[in-house]
Amino acid sequence: MQPLRLILLSGWGIDRRIWQPLAAHWPDHLAAQAIDWPGYGDAAALGTNATLTELAKAMAEPLANEAIWVGWSLGGLLAAALLEELPPPRGLILLGAGNTFCATDGVTSGELNAFRRAFQRDPTATWQHFLRWQAQGEPSPRQAYRQLHDLLGDTLPADSDTLATGLDWLASIDNRRRLAVAPCPVVRLTGEHDPLIGPAQRRASELLTGVGHCPMLSQPQALAAKIAHHATQMASANMAVL
After folding, report:
1. CA-CA 20 to 30 A from 190: which of 40, 93, 106, 133?
2. CA pseudo-torsion sign 55, 33, 205, 218
3. What is the rounded CA–CA span in Å between residue 219 and residue 200?
4. Is 132 exposed, middle or buried (0-12, 13-18, 19+ CB in 10 A)?
5. Whether pTM exceeds 0.90
6. 3-state helix, strand and coil shares in percent for the chain, rounded to the nearest 5
7. pLDDT of 181-224, one tens digit each?
8. Overall average pLDDT of the 165-180 stretch
9. pLDDT range class, residue 238, cuts 50, 70, 90
10. How many CB atoms neighbour CB 89 within 10 A?
C-alpha cells in the first residue's frame, strides 16, 4: 500500500527547513515532503510582481493533487488561493493561516504597511524582527527564536523581490470565497497564543493548546500527530466517496 503523501508548505521569509523538527515524528503510513516556494532554496524565482497564475504554473508539478497539502502562514494563504488554479488536493490543512492575513482584531493593514516600508529600508533587519515577532506566542519565545536562527542562519532565505512579492500577497489575498466553496476537505489549526491570528480566526479553528505561530518548533511531536490524524481522516473520506 502506498503511503499517504503530505506536501508541507512554509510561510513568508522561511523556507522548507522550518519543517525539519517534525521529520522524526511522522507515522510510517505518511510520506511527508517539504517543498520550497519559487525563489526560496533552490527553486527558481518568479519575476517582479508575479501573479498567482504565474505561481500556479511554477507549482503545478510539485503540488501533486494526490497529496494532502499542509500550508503554514503565507503558505496556507497561497495553497488556498491555488485551489482555483490547480487540480485540488485530497485535502488542505491550514496551519496558522486565516482567510486573510490582515484583520481588524489581528495584524491590521496599517501594521502590515508599516512592516512593508521597513522591509524596503532594511530587508535583513526587518526579516529578523519578523522571526522574533512570530516566536512570541511559544512557551519560550527566546528558545523558539534560537531554533529559527539555528535552522535559517543570518542570511535571507530568498531575494528581496521574492520577499516583497510575498508581502504583497499577504496584503491582498482574500480566500473567504475560495474556502467557502473549497473543492476538497479543509481543516484549520491555530495556536491558541498565535500573535499573528486574531480572536475571530481562532474561533473558526481547532486550537493547538500552549503554542503560538511556530508549533513545529515548540511541540513538533504533538503537531505531527495532529496533522497525521487529520490527513488520515481526509484520505479515508476520499476513499469512501470513490
Report:
1. 40
2. negative
3. 24
4. middle
5. yes
6. 50, 15, 40
7. 999 999 999 999 999 999 999 999 999 999 999 999 999 999 99
8. 97
9. low
10. 26
Identify the CA nearest to 63 among candidates 97, 88, 32.
88
CB-based contact 56:86 (threshold 8 Å): yes
For 197, which DSSP code? S
Residue 1 has pLDDT above 80, yes or no: no
Strand pairing of 186-191 and 206-208? parallel
Helices (H), 14-159: 52-59, 74-81, 109-121, 123-134, 141-152
C-alpha cell at 24: 522524526
For CA atoms 89, 7, 237, 180, the dihedral sign is: negative
Domains and their CATH numbers in the chain: 4-241 (3.40.50.1820)
Task: Give the cell for residue 79.
Answer: 495553497
Measured in degrees and rounded to the nearest 5, phi and psi for residue 231 equal -60, -40
Residue by residue, DSSP assigns the chain as -PPEEEEEE--TT--GGGGGGGGGG--TTEEEEEEPPTTBTTSPPPPTT--HHHHHHHHTTTS-TTSEEEEETHHHHHHHHGGGTS---SEEEEES--SSS--TTSS-HHHHHHHHHHHHH-HHHHHHHHHHHHTTTSSSHHHHHHHHHHHHTTS-SB-HHHHHHHHHHHHH---HHHHHT-SS-EEEEEETT-TTS-HHHHHTSEEETT--S-HHHH-HHHHHHHHHHHHHHHHHHHHHH-
